Amino acid sequence: MPLLVTERTSKSILSAQPNGFLVQGPYPFTHTLSPFTGCQFGATTCGLYCYAQWLPNWTYRSAELKGTTAEPVRWGEGVDVKVNAPELLADYLARSTVAQRQTLRIFMATTTDPYMPLEKQRGITRRLLEVFATYDDLDLLVIQTRSPLAARDFDLLRHIPYAWLSLTIESDDESQQLRGGPSFAARLRLADAAVQAGVRTQIAISPCLPYGPDFCTKLLDTGAQRFVVDTLVAGDGQGGGRTARSTYARLVPEWDDEAPAQRLHDALLAAGVAVGWSADGFGGIPYRTEQAKKGHPGGRQAATGDDMQMRLFTTDPPPASAMVLTLGEEGQERRPMPGFPYFWLKYITGFDARHHCAQCFIGPYHKGIWSTVRVPSVHVLKPSVEWQFAYLCGVAETQWADNLHVPMVEAQGEEIELFTHNGIRVHIRNARRLEIPWIEDGWNGFPRSYTTCRNFQFGVDRYGYDGVSRPIQAEFSNPRNGRSQAALQRREKRRRNP
């Protein structure tokens, strides 16, 4: 089917990033920039698993780009060109003060490839770079692509002091190209050429696909300044939930095995190069100026790569001294963990119940957030010097009283064993469970609304908690949306008596 190309005049070109994948790293992005809607590479191998096909900018595309019921335009079959993108960018940067521009950290692009083949004729990306080249005071611009066409713009990229070319190279095994696309060999040559041309170069092994024994060496030989390793579980925005319903998941049953990616990450780390994991890696390029740092108070400390890793049952067992979380039993059929739509494991430094229990959805102590966890699996904690406390949290889909909460510390030779309400065994080696009364009692007697994590935590944050006594219902109100205890009780009564 020939590519359907439409044009539109956009109202804006920079999309602010108040939350999401790109703000989870230690040096978060502020904006994304997408010169196109849709991606021509969606018709190649990456389109089998690309998360962008489920995001709003594609699902809510124009009627013309959707096609008809009889002949719908699928991902990779149509592209909308934002013809006025360079003019919008030029206007935005011209209206911004120097201080405002110094805080800008832009990722181009999350939902398209700026160097898809269509760019050769349209030149939208090059015109955008020409605009950026007139300013030297932005903090960061990352151009993410898998296309050798990027070599065309080396002359511009090397003269933009805040620009990085980030090249997607998922493997060196060409047999993984199930539906074509730029060859891995060509992309490795592109990385080498970019470095030789003086372009700051990052290689994103994202997602990491099965690779050959010399892949790490080939990556290092390019001379790229930094690397990011990501997986279809860690990087799809839903802990593998989006990928699980993709064509790729049906074609490759072992799509969620993160062990090879972890081994590659560790090998790169051992080689002494700059390497990051998933969101920490993409958001791992430091600020250029103090002004940029001041503009991002939410930034957090980078994960060292030594805090936590996840691996499936493999022939490479974790060391005996490691703190190991095992979900399920080895030999069982792999499946999503039943009864828990969300499952988290966090590490915390300097635990304070009044702060951490009140705001566990945010903050610098986050690490290893999973959704749609599959069992059986093994998760290996490697405590660093600063690591003090871990917290296992499962949000049950039956009733909130079945939520799983396991605060723990490292304790060599000890173990924790419990079972979820659906009978899944949870075993933690070299750990001791911390006894915290309001966790142990399961919040029995609380209205359902109170026992959601957020409402409970707002209460603790507002009224404090001494670590011993259980907060009482009368203390709970949510100052952010005005729902009082009485209002929540009335809502609960309506639910019981519809």
Supply database-style keywords.
eight-stranded mixed sheet; 18 helices; eight-stranded antiparallel sheet; 24% helix; globular
Describe the protein:
- With 498 residues, the protein is an alpha/beta fold.
- The protein folds into two domains: 4-290, Alpha-Beta Barrel (TIM Barrel); 324-463, no CATH class.
- Helix content is 24%, strand content 21%.
- A hairpin with an 8-residue loop joins β19 (389-395) and β20.
Percentage of residues in strands: 15-25%
From the alpha-carbon coordinates, what is the Rg to the nearest angstrom?
24 Å
Return the CATH architecture of the largest domain: Alpha-Beta Barrel
Q: Identify the overall geometry.
A: globular
Low-confidence stretches: 299-315, 353-371, 442-452, 454-459, 470-483
- How far apart the termini lie comes to 52 Å
Side by side, the strands of the main sheet go 2-3-6-7-8-9-10-11
pLDDT average, as an integer?
Answer: 80
Largest sheet: 8 strands, mixed
Q: Which CATH class of the largest domain?
A: Alpha Beta
Judged by helices, strands and strand pairing, the structural class is alpha/beta
Domain module count:
2
What is the CATH topology descriptor of the largest domain?
Answer: TIM Barrel
